[in-house]
Amino acid sequence: MLVLVLALALGVTLGLLTDIGVPPSMLTYAGVAVLAALDSCISGVRSSLEETFTDRAFVFGFITNTLMAGFIVFIGDRIGVKELYLAAVVAFGVRVFDNLGVVRSIMFRRRGWE
Amino acid sequence: MPQPQKDDQGGRLLHLRDGSMRALHASEHVVERGFHDVHLLASLVIGMLLVGFLLVAQWRGNDTVTQTLEGQSDQDLAIIIQELTVENVSLRDEVMRVQARILDAERATVSRTEVLNEATRELNALRLIAGLEAALGPGIIVSISDPDRVLLPQDFVALVHELRTGGAEAIAVNDVRLDARSGFGGGNGRVSVEGQTFSQNYEITAIGASSDLEQALTLPGGLKTTLTTFPGVTVEIEQSDSVTVPAKEAPVLVYGEAVQ
Fold first, then answer.
1. Same domain, B171 and B224
2. Does the residue A16 lie in any domain?
3. Which residues of chain A lie closer than 8 angstroms to B27, CB-CB?
4. Residue B104 and residue B46 in one domain
5. Is any Cβ of chain A less than 8 angstroms from the Cβ of B55?
6. Is B173 within 8 Å of B156 (Cβ atoms)?
7. I want to staple A30 with a disulfide (CB 3.0 to 4.6 A). Which of A22, B60, B240, B260 is the partner?
8. Residue A54: which domain range?
């Protein structure tokens, strides 16, 4: 788990070093994409703890989640329902917290805290 | 135990519980693979890297958008509009003030230019009268031939006097410019003026109203008549639209000073 935190820190450092900023018009897309990626990672952690992890499924899920999130925002923009991105945000948010809860409970049980 | 949960909180939570229970089971019975699986670790690490990177990029983008108008709330926009309006009004005032100053300056420049032009005209007139500038204009050319050398300096004094009375503005004798201090001298058939001596042939040029000048000399009993009574003397007067009178050097005054 520590490795993952370090990887996140490394990603942040890389971002800081490369001096990249998302253009304002793409902010919603990138924001939802970040949520999707975060969701994929946490569900990856969960499935690894549940012994159901396959790298193929993880990579595929990572990519499709991110693309789908972007697509939903795009559709919302096109059909004049700009708030459609909220659907993706809510969906990913719920999933992130669900998965986090599962991960937490598994870890607690393993350590005999629960 | 699972039955009431299903009734209370729906299938999803039950499913979650199921999953976690299954995972618990697995972790108890199977040798823990966990994060030691290379593929798993690599995938998750790359995933987290991406998440971190995207987070920072998003953060930056958000920072820039809050600085643009798009990212501002309605209240902030209203305040900005008000500030801009106030600033606009004060800038307009300043523009008007500056324009008024420009107008003032232009007026001052115009009046100064007029004064300057007036002074320049005056100066030019004075330089013309003083003989410091060559003069060009309508006038007459008086050619006098005196083969017998009978003319005296006084005759030329009288001639110049007549021309001045006729309104001459600039007079020259044989291309020697006369000014207020010029005098004629000589004798024995010679006439000297401004340090130069002439005899027998004289050409006097004068700038002024040419017909007036001619009349001044050709009046009945005037100077032309008088001069032509001398033996051999002939006087020819020619009017011209363009007579040139040369300049003379600036005088060096030793004794006099202008009274302020």
1. yes
2. no
3. 49, 51, 106, 110
4. no
5. yes
6. yes
7. A22
8. 26-110
Residues B98 and B189 in one domain: no
- Closest residue of chain A to B19, computed from CA coordinates: A50
Compare CB distances from A15 to B35, B48, B56 and report the shortest one's residue.
Answer: B56
> For B116-161, how does the pLDDT look when each residue is reduced to its tens digit (9 = 90+)?
999 999 998 888 888 888 888 999 999 998 888 888 888 888 889 8
Residue A36 identity: A
Chain A environment of B40 (Cβ under 8 Å) = 44, 48, 53, 55, 58
Q: Which residues pair with B235 in a beta bridge?
A: B144
Q: What percent helix, strand, coil does chain B show, rounded to 5? A: 55, 20, 25
Contact yes or no for B27 and A49 at CB 8 A = yes
Distances in Å between the alpha carbon of A38 and those of A15, A59, A71, B21, B140?
Answer: 16, 13, 17, 24, 110
Whether residue B115 is found in the same domain as residue B189: no
Q: Which residue has the tokens 């699986």?
A: B37
Q: How many independent structural domains does chain A possess?
A: 1
A51-108 pLDDT per residue, tens: 888 888 888 888 898 888 888 888 888 888 878 888 888 989 999 999 999 988 988 8
Residue A36 lies in a domain: yes
